[in-house]
Amino acid sequence: MIELAGIADMRAWSRAARAAGRRLGFVPTMGALHEGHLQLVDRARMAADTIVMSVFVNPLQFAPGEDLDRYPRDLPRDRALAARRGVDCLFVPTASAMYDPHASVRVTPGALADHLCGPHRPGHFVGVLTVVAKLFHIVEPDVAVFGRKDIQQARLIARMAADLGFAVDVVVAPTAREPDGLARSSRNTYLTPAERRQAASIPAGLRDAHARFLAGERDAAALTGGLQQTLRAAGLAVEYVELVDADRLQPLATATADAVLALAARAGRTRLIDNIVLGDGFAADLVAQA
Q1: Which class in CATH covers the domain with range 186-288?
Q2: Close Cβ partners of 80 (under 8 Å, ≥ 6 residues apart)
Q3: Is 124 a catalytic residue?
Q4: Are 54 and 91 in contact (CB under 8 A)?
Q5: Taking the model in full, what pTM does it have?
Q6: Of the listed 34, 37, 115, 124, which one is catalytic?
């Protein structure tokens, strides 16, 4: 595995690989790698010959008071995990290389950020889309893979790629989960043992909502209300629970089989997100990890 930090070096390496006839897969991360990230590498390998992974904690997507300074960082561990999983190139740019001090142009998300995480993290998706656009320009991948846990982010990136004419296929891979169903996240390392037990109510509540949907419940308020009750009973601070359509991410009054049931809640100081697609439940996630 080669490791590159310079933007010109990354672009030259990528172009040489493509000139040699290799199809380039890309997995952007903020590091603190876990099995979920590594499964994205596996998925990228299904669609590409050569895999680039970036590790960059993007300051532009953190609001004041968020966890930029304490976000977990361990590049030696990330390097070892990426190499063992077969990553061909690890791209580790610095913030000063990615953002000129006089830079002012940003990518804005539009209506897809009006619900779910958007209202609760002002400016977050501007930061996400801006850095991903820059990474797409630098790496020039044929395919880029993102996880379904961050479904709003994935949907926004796919929309950006289409609207701005990026020649990249955006693939959304199943959510990687712990044995009890909790979605894998770098921020799970923040959880105390007591908070980790509280967090287990998230997959339990989603499973219950899915079972109610399969039993015939179609009222969005009933499904979201039941999930909120489960989370609050476990001691979590609920930020939102919403049922939205998968394409425009707009709220629904009536549940359908492709609707997304999504949530954000806090265990202590740690913000956790998750979702399922009704009709799928956890089935697609669990099959991917079998």
Answers
A1: alpha beta
A2: none
A3: no
A4: yes
A5: 0.95
A6: 37
